[in-house]
Structures are given as C-alpha cells and as structure tokens.
Amino acid sequence: MGVFSTGPESTAGHEQVVFCEDRKSGLKAIIGIYSTALGPALGGTRFYPYASEADALHDVLDLSRGMAYKNALANLDLGGGKAIIWGDPDQIKSEALLRAYGRFVETLGGRYYTACDVGTYVQDMDMIHRETDYVVGRSEAHGGSGDSSVLTAWGTFQGMRAAAAHAWGTATLRGRRVGVAGLGKVGRYLVGHLREDGAEVVATDVSEKALAWARQTHPEVDLVPDTETLITSDIDVYAPCAMGGALNDDTVPVLRARVVAGAANNQLAHVGVEKLLDERGVLYAPDYVVNSGGVIQVADEIEGFNFARAKARATGIFDTTKQILELADAEGVPAAVAADRLAERRITEVGRLSTIRV
C-alpha cells in the first residue's frame, strides 16, 4: 500500500496528513493532524521500525485522533496530531535526520507541535528545535520541561486512584496487587508511586535491561516472564505501559484484573473491545484520559513552563476520570464511550467559537 493508494477512507476525519522524505538522511516520516478545532495540533513523534508503510500510516492516524480527544479532556486549548519516523532509531537516527524532520515540522507554520514518544527523547527534541520552534518536551537547558514521563506517570497514578475509588470505594491502591506491563520511561515512575501508596507490584518487560533495573531498584517487585503470565495472575489492577493493542480478543477473556488503568496509548485493539471488558465486569479507565499527564506537562512549555502548575493540572486527571466513570454508569455505556462523548462535546462546543470573528 503506497502513499496514493490508501484511499480517501483511510484519512477520513483528518484535516491533514503529510508524508515527508529526505533521502540523503534516510528520513521517512508521516505527520497526521486530526483536528485544530481547539488550537494547534499537539502530539509526539514515534520513531519505530514498522513492518510496512500501511502499518505506519494506520498508527499515525489512530494516534493523532487519540491526541485530539486526549487534549480535549485534559482541558487544553490544543488540537490533536501525531507523527511517526519510519525506521529503527538505533540504526538510522542522526543529527541530519532529526534536523530534516524539524524542517518539515516548520513548514506547517505552527499547525502542529511535536514532542517525545516511543523512540524519541528530550535530546532529540533539542535537536529538532534547532530547525523549528514548534517542538515541546525539550530539556530545561533549552527552555523546556524535561522528561514528560514524570507527569505521565503521575497522571496515570491519579487515574488509577479514581478507578480504585469507583471499584472499591477508596482512592488508594494500598493492599491491591497491580500488574505493570512495561518498565520503560513511564512504567518506572509509576512503580515508584504505587509502592509509595502501599500497593503490591508484579511486573514484566521484554527488555532485560529494564528487568535488571527493577531487581536493583525495587527488589520487592515480583517479576514474571511475559505479559500473558502477568494478566492471568492474581492481580487487582492491570496497567499496560508499553505498546498499544494490549486489550484484544485474546487477552480480555483471560484477564483476571478488576480494573485496567495504564499509560500505554491505544490499549483497545479494535472497536468493540470496550464492550468485552464491560461484559466481563472489568472497569476500564480510558487510556487517553489517564495518560494525559505528559501532554499536560509539555503543553505548559508553550506559555512558559511551571512545574507546580503543570503538576496541579495533571492531578486533575483524578477528577476527570471520576467524572467519566460516573457518566458511564449514568448512561449505561462503557467508560471508553463516555470519554469519547465528553471529548467530542468539548471539541464541538468550544471549537465552534473560532467562527466568531474578533
């Protein structure tokens, strides 16, 4: 499937999809802008060796739509976008490639702000910043907020607390057994918050380096060999913190947790999984709500970063999650549907104000 053979239905609902290529540096990137109804589109850049162009395009379209909803429910005056750089970052990432990508971001004239995601880091944003001002998630030395994983994990923890309050009547994970799948940038901070709150933690990761970190830093955490073992073990909460699609037709039937609340994007493999969770009595805290702490953190850079202000906003994820879960009960729909409705309502109601000319 090529650039011109994807068909109009592939980008339905998106305002703009840009394919970027710089052959000398090896850059192949796709930038997806889903909506600018609430403001410039904001979303990270994922650097990943997709199996095909079609897979890369599918991911950027899904992720950019998710960012529009995430930013809306985070109460940000920002729309939704996302980008991917196609390739193995360990093999092709270079100054020339990142700066070429920054030039393409600049050509959009502020319609899209980029940030970190899987495969990209603060130092990469600093490099991209040499070619464009439309990049957040930079280092403090370059006027940014540093590692956005800090508030991503904090916000995820707040969403998990709200889900615990809804499920068990108390906003704490103390005495609960939480399964964390993925001990990357966010998962590590999340484990710390859970342990401080008194939760028992069982975890897994595909990286031996990540497992070694856990053994050294949190020897009390139980480590299991894979996600299948994790989700079929005796856990109260499942926290997917790696790649998307963690909740699917195979995993949901064997999942033993009462609550799902994690930092990974696009946890539902396809439409309908939210109903499977609901039918099994599993309380799902929508991923794009609970993991929005990172985007709240980097968005704060646009007005001049203040960590205390950004953390206070991320703490509000507790109230947003609580509101969504209560709305789901009141309307008799899965929480994912309730979250979508709230996001769409804000995009429509606030977005229409741009038609009022001043």
Describe this structure in words.
- The chain is of the alpha/beta class and 358 residues long.
- The chain has 2 domains: 126 residues, 3-Layer(aba) Sandwich (Rossmann fold), CATH 3.40.50.10860; 197 residues, Rossmann fold (3-Layer(aba) Sandwich), CATH 3.40.50.720.
- It is built from 14 helices and 12 strands.
- The strands form 2 sheets. Strands 1, 2, 3, 4, 5 and 6 form a 6-stranded mixed β-sheet that branches. Strands 9-8-7-10-11-12 form a 6-stranded parallel β-sheet, with helices on both faces.
- α5 packs parallel to α13, α11 runs antiparallel to α12 and α13 crosses α14.
- The protein is globular, with a radius of gyration of 20 Å.
Q: Biggest sheet: strands, sense, closure?
A: 6 strands, mixed
Distance between the termini: 45 Å
Query: Which range best describes the helical content: under 10%, 10-25%, 25-40%, 40-55%, 55-70% or over 70%?
Result: 40-55%
Order of helices and strands: EEEEHEHHEHHEHEHEHEEHEHHHHH
Task: Count every helix, treating DSSP H or I runs of 4 or more residues as helices.
Answer: 14
What count of structural domains? 2
Q: Structural class of the helix and strand makeup?
A: alpha/beta
The coarse silhouette is: globular
Report the C-alpha radius of gyration, rounded. 20 Å
Count the E strands. 12
Strand content: 5-15%
The CATH architecture of the largest domain: 3-Layer(aba) Sandwich
GO molecular function: nucleotide binding; oxidoreductase activity, acting on the CH-NH2 group of donors, NAD or NADP as acceptor
InterPro entries: Aminoacid_DH-like_N_sf (IPR046346), Glu/Leu/Phe/Val/Trp_DH (IPR006095), Glu/Leu/Phe/Val/Trp_DH_C (IPR006096), Glu/Leu/Phe/Val/Trp_DH_dimer (IPR006097), Glu/Phe/Leu/Val/Trp_DH_bac/arc (IPR016211), NAD(P)-bd_dom_sf (IPR036291)
Protein name: Valine dehydrogenase
Family: Belongs to the Glu/Leu/Phe/Val dehydrogenases family.
